[in-house]
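TA notes, week 10

Several of you asked for a full example with nothing omitted. So below is the full record: structure tokens for the whole chain, then the designed sequence directly under it. When grading your own attempts, check the secondary structure regions first.
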């Protein structure tokens, strides 16, 4: 079994990765609350990598681009429990509970880490026995557990309402600034367009006007230059950087690197 996902409810799941690692460039349509049971998780955002382990709790905001890498650790597979905080549920919640941060400036979305906070740990670990059920968790119980998680998040970090009570869709933003920060994420062009507030056609038109080249050519060159910097300046191995710089396959990365720079990435490492 390399990868298994179990749902006890449409909004609550448990994941298990037994391979050497699992990598995905993610863009969630819902906020996602994740508790790591075992293994290690690395999150790559722009030029920074964060590492988390067993017992840590993370909150991913919707429409945030990130690369997630899950690894086994200490002989244990990577396991986690995740809870989707969907918009309709949050809208219903905030109809009954006044946001605590109304009128304040809204900061840019970013993932949150709550490490091993006892309240969140207790809430999410209490879901584990429900995965032994032969039927799905009753909706009323699932709703209580999700509402409990929302209450805890707001207790730990009152300013979290900036994220959870913000129901706006992405608006049109500066394409150059966005792409310079997010080029290493391997996403469909439609997603890049959506996140910058554009249709695919408008995105390609504005991109060509801004960068004087096509999105795919620009993305490949930016990713290769980032990998080159990591290998030559940071002395990292090609096998350590190709996933973090937007490539899916090591051999394809090596071919593209050599074609662009004139030598193999392993030569740059030595």
């Amino acid at each position: 079994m390399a990868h298994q996902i179990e749902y006890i409810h449409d909004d609550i799941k448990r994941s298990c990765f037994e391979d050497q690692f699992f990598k995905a460039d993610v863009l969630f349509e819902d906020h996602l609350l994740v508790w790591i049971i075992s293994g290690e998780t690395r999150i790559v955002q722009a030029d920074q990598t964060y590492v988390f382990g067993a017992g840590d709790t993370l909150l991913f905001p919707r429409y945030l681009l990130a690369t997630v890498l899950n690894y086994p650790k200490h002989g244990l597979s990577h396991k986690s429990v995740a809870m989707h905080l969907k918009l309709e549920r949050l809208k219903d919640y905030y109809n009954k509970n006044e946001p605590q941060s109304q009128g304040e400036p809204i900061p840019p979305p970013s993932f949150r880490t709550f490490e091993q906070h006892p309240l969140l740990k207790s809430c999410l670990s209490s879901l584990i026995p429900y995965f032994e059920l032969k039927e799905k968790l009753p909706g009323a119980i699932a709703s209580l557990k999700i509402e409990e998680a929302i209450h805890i998040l707001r207790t730990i970090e009152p300013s979290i309402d900036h994220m959870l009570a913000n129901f706006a869709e992405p608006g049109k933003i500066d394409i150059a600034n966005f792409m310079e920060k997010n080029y290493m994420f391997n996403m469909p062009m439609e997603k890049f367009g959506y996140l910058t507030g554009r249709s695919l056609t408008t995105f390609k038109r504005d991109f060509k006007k801004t960068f004087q080249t096509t999105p795919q050519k620009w993305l490949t060159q930016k990713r290769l230059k980032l990998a080159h910097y990591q290998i030559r300046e940071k002395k990292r191995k090609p096998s350590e950087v190709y996933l973090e710089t937007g490539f899916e396959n090591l051999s394809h990365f090596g071919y593209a690197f050599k074609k662009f720079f004139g030598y193999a990435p392993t030569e740059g490492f030595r």
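The mean pLDDT is 89. Use that as a sanity check on your answer.
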